[in-house]
Structure formats: structure tokens, C-alpha cells
Amino acid sequence: MTDTPAHDQNTTHHYLMHYPEHPPREEDPHYRDFEAYRRKTKDTARCAFAVETGDDSECHGGLELHHTHIEFSLQNGVDLKRLEHLYPGISNPDEVGAWVETEANFEWLCAWHHRGHGGVHTAAAADFEASKWVRGLIT
Question: Where are the domains of the chain?
């Protein structure tokens, strides 16, 4: 049996997202918490991808604050029982919005690892994770 030779392959993912109703970000009463955290941590922030891999050679663009688990636009659709499993005490629907804007739900990423072709908002989760360990996996 021979090994499959190295090769390039185009990969496209298409699916329909179902966003729950949500207010504009500017009207979110907890947005000030996001901004306060950003101001407090930006001077010492590093891309979480670089921190995890111990290598920032693939980081490009400025640092951006990423909602790690729940995006702002999805908070009204959260299954609180599922979230409660990892974050005990969060099952109060009036508190989810506040939790979305806390350190437990934030990480800093460079622009490439946030919104670039290989970023967490663009690449499939498995591909983004694999790109931490396989250099040049996504271009």
C-alpha cells in the first residue's frame, strides 16, 4: 500500500444559519462591559492562537476581541440547560446577555485568526483546530 501524495483541495461549506431576534449591538446595555474589558486588556493581549501554539509567526493584522462561546447575535437563542452544564448559575435568561460580555466568553485573536480565510469565523471548526498544528494548512 502506498501513501496518498500531498495535494491541494478546494473545500467549501454552505449552510443556512438561523439567527434569533436580537437588538443592534449599539443598543446592548452590556456593550460597555465588552469595551471595558477591551480597554483593560488590550495592552497586554496576545492572539490566543499564538498563545496556544507558542508561535505568532502566522499572526497578521491587529488584535480583535472574539466572543469564544456565544456570539452577541446568538444570545437570545441559547439553550440555557446546555450552557448551565459548563457554566453553573447561568440559567437565568436575564443574565445571559451580561455573561456574553465577560472574560469567560472572550479571547483575543489577530485579524487573520479571527476573520481571515483560516480564521475561527471562516474555517470549519475542525480545520481551524488542525491549522494550529499543521503549518500552512489553510491559505
Answer: 43-131
